[in-house]
Amino acid sequence: LILPLTKTTDPAAPRIVLLRIENADPTRIRVEDGVKLILMILDILLNEDDNFVIAGQHLFIDDKGISVNHMLQLTPTIVKKIHTCLIDAYALRPKGFHVINVPQFAEAAYNMFKSIMNEKIVNR
Q: Residue ranges of the CRAL-TRIO domain (predicted)?
């Protein structure tokens, strides 16, 4: 579901994190459980990887295999809670968000995320 890639040779380079939805069965895995897993991995990275904190992160999201059932789990309340945790509570320094293989129906969810983010994050 989430994979921090190996460190680059440049110590000042942002850490690259890959997030894939493909194998997450929406009938067995709730969005809340996926977010909990992501937050646990972020906790480990924040505690053990100084470069992750100092140089920042690039998040690559691969939406291959995402379904309507995944999107139906994203209520506005959950989206707001995810935003609060990732942007307001964690000491993250996002350098970029890159999303690939986005189906047409998933763009509405990304627009919902964009509507609550500040302009600086949206531009990244």
A: 9-123
